[in-house]
Amino acid sequence: MADEALFLLLHNEMVSGVYKSAEQGEVENGRCITKLENMGFRVGQGLIERFTKDTARFKDELDIMKFICKDFWTTVFKKQIDNLRTNHQGIYVLQDNKFRLLTQMSAGKQYLEHASKYLAFTCGLIRGGLSNLGIKSIVTAEVSSMPACKFQVMIQKS
Amino acid sequence: MAVCVAVIAKENYPLYIRSVPTENELKFHYMVHTSLDVVDEKISAMGKALVDQRELYLGLLYPTEDYKKRYGYVTNSKVKFVMVVDSSNTALRDNEIRSMFRKLHNSYTDVMCNPFYNPGDRIQSSRAFDSMVTSMMIQVC
């Protein structure tokens, strides 16, 4: 199916576009990750508004996280999160053993240093989605071996 | 017919409020404002409810002595819709109100997904949203 590849291609172009403009001095160097993250934030807000239109009201925080791992992830990345762990005190770890945006690169450690640029958008996506559902959070990603990666969500209690 | 339609943000400030021009606008603002507490109360009570009762539509907010009824609806993103309905000559059924809210929600989602709209801003320049609200105000009268 062509429409599945479309998102991947668009995302790749977006990452390289942002980094190219950084080389030309349009964006401050080092701000690229933030820029990608902010793009993801806005997209996440819009997406969650659409996805939750026909769902029942969420019971609690865990219910929301489950929704992100199942429905949200399936729609965006065509698979569910493989493992969701929580300490029940506001920290959630979402583990994806075959993260779709990293599958295009060779598995293993060869491009490990470049992985963070391809995860920034997704971090923003999660943060934006949660913020629209009324949860403030900090989302970080870590990769030890491609294409598996972990997203850590820290809920900010207000 | 709907005489007033309001969209209230998560943080309880108005994103959009429109009422029929024939009556005092301030009165409607006041009506919507007083409804918000009831909306909050209903949501917190709903958290403990069973799965099938966790609907987005809240129903009639509270009975009033006059013919203007207030209905509420809260999206998953905690955005509140309040509608004041004039039922002096037509008794509207619950289902009709529910479908009106669904239409409003669909339009709101479209506004949210508009790249030129910043989440949290007032909805001012959306012609599609405006005309949808207008249609709701005329539709049933």
Please describe what this structure looks like.
The complex is a heterodimer of chains A (158) and B (141). Chain A has a four-stranded antiparallel beta sheet with strand order 1-2-4-3, covered by helices on one side. The N and C termini of chain A lie far apart (44 Å). Chain A has four helices and four strands. Chain A has helices spanning 2-23, 32-51, 61-77, 115-132; strands at 83-86, 91-96, 137-142, 149-155. Chain B is α+β, with helices and mostly antiparallel strands and 141 residues long. The N and C termini of chain B lie close together (5 Å). The mean pLDDT of chain B is 81. Chain A binds chain B through residues 42, 45-46, 48-50, 52-53, 55-60, 132-134, and chain B through 10, 43, 46-47, 51-52, 54-56, 74-78, 105-106, 108-109, 112-113, 115, 119.
Describe how the helices and strands are arranged.
The complex is a heterodimer of chains A (158) and B (141).
Chain A lengths: L1 H22 L8 H20 L9 H17 L5 E4 L4 E6 L18 H18 L4 E6 L6 E7 L3
Antiparallel strand pairs in A: 1-2, 2-4, 3-4
Helix pairs in contact in A: 2-4
Chain B lengths: L1 E7 L5 E6 L5 H22 L10 E4 L7 E7 L5 E7 L7 H19 L14 H13 L2
Antiparallel strand pairs in B: 1-2, 1-5, 3-4, 4-5
Keywords (chain A): Endoplasmic reticulum, Golgi apparatus, Neurogenesis
Subcellular location (chain A): Endoplasmic reticulum; Golgi apparatus, cis-Golgi network
Family (chain A): Belongs to the TRAPP small subunits family. BET3 subfamily.
